[in-house]
Structures are given as C-alpha cells and as structure tokens.
Amino acid sequence: MAALLLAMIVLVFTNVVLRYGFSSGLRPSVELSRLGLVWVVMLGAAVILRREEHLAVTELTEALLPRLVPLLRRAAYLVILVSVLMLFWGAFRQMNANWNNISQLTGLPSALFYLAGVISAILMTVIAAVRIISPDALNFDEDLEDTQ
Question: Using CA atoms, how far apart are residues 6 and 11, in angstroms rounded to an integer?
C-alpha cells in the first residue's frame, strides 16, 4: 500500500509540474492515480478490519452488558461477513462485466477498479469468518507483544 501511495504521489506531482511548468502533462496519470486510490482504500479497509481500528462504539455494551460482549462481537462480525459477501458478489459481477471495457488513456481494463473490491472482500471475509469462530483471533496487539 505504501508503494502504491508513493506511485500516486509521484504521478500526480509529475503531472502538475508538467502541466503548469511546461504546458503538457501525462494523460494517463489521472486515471492511474484514481485506480491507485481505489486499491489503497479497499486494501486499507481490510487492514483496518484486521487491526480492529474501524469506527466502533463499545462503551455502552461493555459497561451495561459485559457478559454479552463476546456474543455481540460475534454478531457484529456476522453482519460484517454478510455485508462483505454482498460487496464480493457485486464487485465480482462488475469485474466480469468490464473486462472488455478498455480505457483509451491507459489501455487497461476498467475491471481493475472492481478487482480491488473482490480482493478486499475476500480478505475481509476470511478475517470476519475467523473472528466469528474466535473473537480474539488475529488481534494486532497480541501480535506486537509476541514480537517484543
């Protein structure tokens, strides 16, 4: 993700310098940076889910219903699993429908935008399924403590 972000920065910066400094530009840079942004966002969503850094309000359930927290976490991951499976299905269908839709600027199929959703959905499906079985599995904090 860092390399992709660096490539996007270089593309956009180079395009701006060429456009305003030399009255030219890299035509494919806009589309390539847009494609890179989609990939960074979709892969970032999987990383955030893995690290459990997504937006969640847990103070109320942990204070009022501490015994039900493991069950509620499993229910939340079940909702995530269903949502991610819907993302997978929609992105997969769009990806298959757009393989022959080739961009005039880059020569790349527009299905690459939807492929990011497919791969991200697969990663998040695995994470959610593992956490339904064991809510404390794949905890990022425990992984850091093991390496220190």
Answer: 9
Q: Which residue has the tokens 């920065």?
A: 9
Short-list 12, 38, 39, CA closest to 26: 12
Given its phi and psi angles, is residue 109 left (phi above 0), alpha (psi -120 to 50 degrees) or beta?
beta
The pair of structure tokens assigned to 135 is 């809510």
Does the pLDDT value for residue 144 go beyond 80?
no
In the block, residue with structure tokens 């969640």? 56
Between the alpha carbon of residue 145 and those of residues 60, 130, 135, 141, the distances in Å are 28, 20, 18, 6
- Rounded to whole angstroms, the Cα distance separating 88 from 94 reads 10
What is the spatial distance between Cα 69 and Cα 74, in angstroms, rounded to a whole number?
Answer: 9
Largest Cα–Cα distance of the chain, in whole Å? 65
What is the C-alpha separation between 1 and 37, in angstroms, rounded? 10
Q: What is the pLDDT of residues 113-127, one digit of tens each?
A: 999 999 999 999 999
